[in-house]
Amino acid sequence: MDELLAYLMAATVQLSGLPALTERPPVTPMPYQKMLVEICADLKEESVRMLAQYDLCTHGQSVADKNCEALKPDPEPYAQCTSQTGLVAAYILEQRRIVYRDDLNLENDADNSFIVHEFVHALQDAQHGGKMFDTCAGVIAAEREAYSVQQRYLYFRGQMLRVGERLRMVGCEGLQ
Ligand SMILES: [Zn+2]
Question: What's the CA-to-centroid distance between 132 and ligand 1, angstroms?
């Protein structure tokens, strides 16, 4: 496993041209639902923090006319995050680690190409200090690069799988 991950990281560095990392991020397999909980953890923290503020507002020594409703956390982002389908792997920015579905077979090049994709995000994170993911345009540029490296890896390994098709439809109109 360690040897395979070392190989995948070396391939990622070579195919992306991005600077290598001194330390490889941890790569952990997990069941799909557990993986979503991990990935969405920051949204949950956010809603827990907002709920604490809301409680303080409604039960605390706040002035009567204060608008506590505005502080009421929206459960939707977390619920949406944990109910998404079709995710294979993710680089968790806050934790600088990679999680992937435990039904992937990393001996298979089509499957392990998703680790290459996430390794690209780890390299981007190091190069841009996390700032690349701050805007919609930045996220799309990061995804475009990650898919293009993943695709080059797939060609290199003689795989027919095409990735990143959906990304072409995505734009940032009306977004930051
Ligand atoms: Zn990605």
Answer: 12
- 60 CA to centre of own chain: 37
Q: Provide the pLDDT for residue 176.
A: 45
How many Å separate Cα 7 from the centre of its chain?
A: 22
- Ion ligand 1: protein residues whose beta carbon lies under 5 Å: 143, 146
Residue 119 CA to ligand 1 centre (angstroms):
9
Residue 22 pLDDT level (bands cut at 50, 70, 90): very high
- Within 1-95, residue ranges assigned H as helices are 2-16, 32-39, 41-59, 76-82
- The separation between CA 167 and the C-alpha centre of its own chain, rounded to angstroms, equals 15
Tell me the pTM. 0.85
Per-residue pLDDT tens digits for 103-138: 999 999 999 999 999 999 999 999 998 788 888 889
DSSP annotation string for 67-93: -GGGGS--SHHHHHHHT-----EEEET
Angle (nearest 5°) at CA 12 between 41 and 163: 70
CA 40 to chain centre: 9
Distance from the CA of 89 to the center of ligand 1, in angstroms?
9
Phi then psi dihedrals of residue 6, to 5 deg:
-60, -40
